[in-house]
From TrEMBL:
It holds the Pfam family MetW. CDD domains: AdoMet_MTases. NCBIfam families: metW. SUPFAM superfamilies: S-adenosyl-L-methionine-dependent methyltransferases. This is Methionine biosynthesis protein MetW. Coiled coil: none annotated. InterPro entries: Methionine_synth_MetW, SAM-dependent_MTases_sf. It comes from the Bacteria.
């Protein structure tokens, strides 16, 4: 079964594009993009196990650390750099986001939203670090070291001068829902978020289709 955030990434990526999947794990998303969109895909993965699993799928993946090794890629090597549910696990998220948009025309970034109502309620009622569907591991074993809220992420994009071309939210097992990330309510409603980012002159914003709700890419 395809994850809903993977479905959304599939909608956002142009067929045949050059794609770097950063923190690609065992290669499920990269394989999907290769099969469904015929992308020229590459992967960067920190774990040897993940790299071996990707190679077993026939994917082009190298072992590396996003915090350090993105610096070695030339400018604009890719059309898209994808960072799926990984930003919060990096040591230098600001630097990583900056590098994604140096090496690629567009970045697709998703992360769990620490401002979701279930996180707030868990912290208020239990007084302990929350465990939710989006954040299932206890604090002492989680790979997440820089959790943020939707509002935090928007502040970072403004600080970096990054343009938000599309944004979507997920809750439970439901499909993606296009959002206006500047609305305070979305910081409560969105269990996890996904953004299409770029730099440069303002462009037509990606909006939901009036018929299907799919995101339309200019």
């Amino acid at each position: 079964m395809i994850r809903e955030d993977f479905r959304e990434i599939l909608r956002l990526v142009r067929p045949g594009a050059r794609v770097l999947d950063v923190g690609c794990g065992e290669g499920a998303l990269l394989e999907l993009l290769t099969q469904e969109k015929q992308v020229d895909g590459r992967g960067l993965e920190i774990s040897a196990h993940g790299v071996a699993a990707c190679m077993a799928r026939g994917l082009s993946v190298v072992q590396g650390d996003a915090d350090q090794d993105l610096d070695h890629f030339p400018d604009k090597t890719f059309d898209y750099a994808v960072l799926s549910q990984t930003l919060q696990a990096t040591r230098k998220p600001r630097h990583v986001l900056d590098e994604l948009l140096r090496i690629a025309d567009r970045a697709i970034v998703s992360f769990p939203n620490f401002g979701h109502w279930s996180v707030r309620w868990s912290l208020l009622s239990r007084g302990r670090m929350p465990q939710t569907k989006a954040l299932p591991t206890p604090w002492w074993s989680t790979p997440n070291i820089h959790l943020c809220t939707l509002a935090d992420f928007m502040a970072l994009t403004q600080d970096l001068g990054v343009r938000v071309d599309a944004s979507a939210a997920f809750a439970g097992k439901g499909p993606a829902r296009a959002i206006d990330p500047t609305k305070a309510l979305e910081n409560w409603r969105s269990e996890s978020c996904l953004f299409l980012l770029s730099r440069g002159a303002p462009a037509q914003r990606v909006e939901p289709s009036a018929v299907s709700g799919d995101l339309l890419i200019p």
